[in-house]
Amino acid sequence: MEKEKVGGSSKLNIAIIHPDLGIGGAERLIVDAAVELASRGHNVHIFTSHHDKTRCFEETLSGTFPVTVYGAFLPRHIFYRFHAVCAYLRCLFVALCVLLMWPSFDVVLVDQVSIIIPLIKTKKSTKVVFYCHFPDLLLAQHTTALRRIYRKPIDMLEEATTGMADLILVNSRFTASTFANTFKHLNARGIQPAVLYPAVNVEQFDKSTSYRNFLSINRFERKKNIQLAISALAILQSLNDVSEGHDLSGASLTVAGGFDKRLRENVEYLEELKSLAEKEGVSDRVKFITSCSTAERNALLSECLCVLYTPKVFII
């Protein structure tokens, strides 16, 4: 059947499979991609295992594209363990539902969980695009022998299934080099990702005349290393420093980002950060905002002196 033409190009039926459509950088990218593709006349449909309408990006509720949830009943962990296995099972269930309950899509965009790629590839007419935000095996802990045994097959599956995508995308040249150094077998086979930078609509930000606030915007996860920003603020306060005409001794810090009360780490880490601010003597200058709206985020970015990026960088 010939595809419908839109503005001289083919109108595609595109499915996006994302494990958990909450609030975070990965979700922001996926939602932005869906909005842009829909604006170009393509039929876009997001499938996920979780979508809380009280805690999500506004665009997922606007009707620009449908969002369908499958497998919300499946556990996210087993006694706070086996998070990766549970994430794989939930995403596999979503992919299976898409295959069995929906007509074939021209393109399926997958991110974070590559293990579903071979399942989707059973539909020969479907092209699979995999967006690698960062190799998961580098983000997972391998600190004990038991963890290394647990992660070994998962890490092997990540590399093998990632290489089955028709197109692999990454978010920067740094991630592209990390991809090559991490997935050595894929690199040896000449499988290299293309760089597609996350888009930013700068017109959504207002001009501000007050720039005294530092901003840290991340999920409330320990790997984001947010405690570094709080400790740096304490040092800055003790120095009573003046830089380029700005008296930064009275500067404050806003810590904002995705927060999910279902996740024990989110809850525990927020309390740890609050305790650290008290210990460092800067609790009156640190403001915590959990799961802020897009409008709140834009206001924070417009008014801040700078954005602090504190996650550890992986050098391979």
Give an account of the 3D structure.
This is Alpha-1,3/1,6-mannosyltransferase ALG2. Belongs to the glycosyltransferase group 1 family. Its main location: endoplasmic reticulum. Its EC number is 2.4.1.132, 2.4.1.257. This protein has 316 residues and is of the alpha/beta class. It has 2 domains: 183 residues, Rossmann fold, CATH 3.40.50; 88 residues, Rossmann fold, CATH 3.40.50. It is built from 10 helices and 15 strands. The protein has a 7-stranded parallel β-sheet, sandwiched between helices. The longest helix has 19 residues. The N and C termini lie far apart (48 Å).
In short:
The chain is 36% helix and 19% strand. It has 316 residues and is α/β, with parallel strands linked by helices.
